[in-house]
Give the backbone structure.
Amino acid sequence: MRALIAALGIYGIYRLWRSRSTRPRALLQDMRRDRRGRERPESRPRKVVYEVVEHDGGWAYKVGDVFSETYPTVQEATEAAERAAAAHQAAGSDEMIQYQDGAGRWHEELETGDSRPETEVDQQAARH
């Protein structure tokens, strides 16, 4: 029994040491790299679609499940979506970011200012 407890203790210390000695894994898909530091094929910036939809008695744009503020006309909502999409694509400066992983550990990484997604404004819902 003592041997089992000792083995589990050694394994626990090994796992603790290993988790601190490895590079933190990125949660953002566009930051993932292989072991040699090259970008993985799936790490290329994804496409973000801004949808113009009816919302709360007016019009809004949404990305995923998140809505913008409500605009009185579809034209104003479309213009706001186009401005937001253009700003989303604009390159920025390199920044150090911090994030918490699923296990509750904090990581710090450099986010390059040029890894921006492709954007599109979709007015399909506005036409129906």
